[in-house]
Amino acid sequence: MMLAALDSSIVNTALPRMVTDLGGLIHLSWVVTAFMLSSTITTPLYGKLSDTFGRRHMFGVSIIIFLLGSVFCGAAQTMAQLIGFRALQGLGAGGLLVLAQAAIGDVVAPRDRPRYQGLFTGVFAVASVAGPLLGGIITQALSWRWIFYVNLPIGAIALAMIWRGLPPKILRADGSNLRSIDYAGTILLTLVTTTILLLLAGGGSQFPWVSRNSFCLALFAIVLLALFLWREAIAPQPLIRLPLFRNTVFARGTLVSGMASFAMFGTLVLMPVYFQLVLGMSPAQSGEMILPQVGCMFVSSIIGGRFVSRDGRYRLFLIAGIWLEASALAGLAGLAFIGAPPILFLVAVGILGCGMGMFMPNLTNAVQNAVTHAELGAATGTMVFIRSLGGAAGVAASGAIMSSRLANANADVTLHALTQNGLRTLGDLSIGQQAAISNAYRSALAGCFTLSGIVMIAALVLVLGLPEIQLRTQIPDAV
Questions:
Q1: Among the four residues 30, 184, 311, 427, which has the most C-beta atoms within 10 Å?
Q2: In CATH, what number is assigned to the domain containing residue 313?
Q3: Distance separating alpha carbons of residues 51 and 49, to the nearest angstrom
Q4: Which three-class secondary structure state does DSSP give residue 258?
């Protein structure tokens, strides 16, 4: 979990230095996009394969691929090499998060999982915030290459602990395990996911949302999705079992997970920009503004997990958590619109963290508890896959809102200049121009928070109709 969380954020602060050393500024976004593509594509595949070959074996594969990609990324000599090796690293990273969550189901009874999921959520939250800080320190003290090399000792420890702690699965010698893999479904899912993420990554930046490129990618994605659903309906051993979506808890839980990821990434990614360009904070200060969210998320996830473990009832925590997150997002929208002082943002961000800590781990528990143990990996992989797509959609939607508002703010100041130079660009402007840009950012962030709040209100409606299945106290034999 720490490996997955660190690598999702530690690279961001080193991107400018990578461009300085390797060049290729025009392709910089692909350092992130390539990793996101390959890791998102492989999440359901790792889940399905772990049900077949065992969690321990697939953990070994994913960690080794991830570490190999880390070594090659650190040794990259051109931007093209770095992008390619980041894609390789993502092929391994796709298994880290899904297998960590699925493995809990192998060794912990559903009734006790909330306590462990709370700890996992806390580790993820702390590592996510520590990532940018460590990335900046390592890049400044050593080199950006060491942000990849630092994965090696952590990965070695994780691999040793997994190999010792998880029991192996006995494989059949007739090769039926390999024949059971849905290769056609895997290829189709890869194509449809790649097309969707290319549309989300390029829309509004590399090409307009209303354009021939957008239309062709959207049409291609729809056709591929239809083919994938048809394939999964007829495959003997499908990658994603469509009958799982007849399970109300699984279907609603997976959808709510994607909606929550949409809201979270759509707001938290842009919040530091607001703190720096509107409130005049330094990068370090803007990072400190997120600490209440991390601290409250850590505490509420652990406390909530202990309460849920007592009686196996999680629905109340789901409702309360989503309600708190929706309220916090509405509050952040209002605070951004009026340009409120930082102290009020700290309160709202803390409430946001409390809500996330209360419902995120319990949502995973609810979904895992609602499916059979034989489908635990596939169900978890599908949920993480939908969550990743939701996060990408949230970032794309917020970016589109931000770009459209800034495009009309001041013709003399481009979005590129603001993004590259930040406060230095604002310092060269007149008071009137600074006010125009500040107002544009306030309006844009208010729009992003409002959209995220609306999404979470819709998620609340779905959770209100979610039937509660009391967490079981027994688990079958681990795989």
A1: 30
A2: 1.20.1250.20
A3: 5
A4: helix
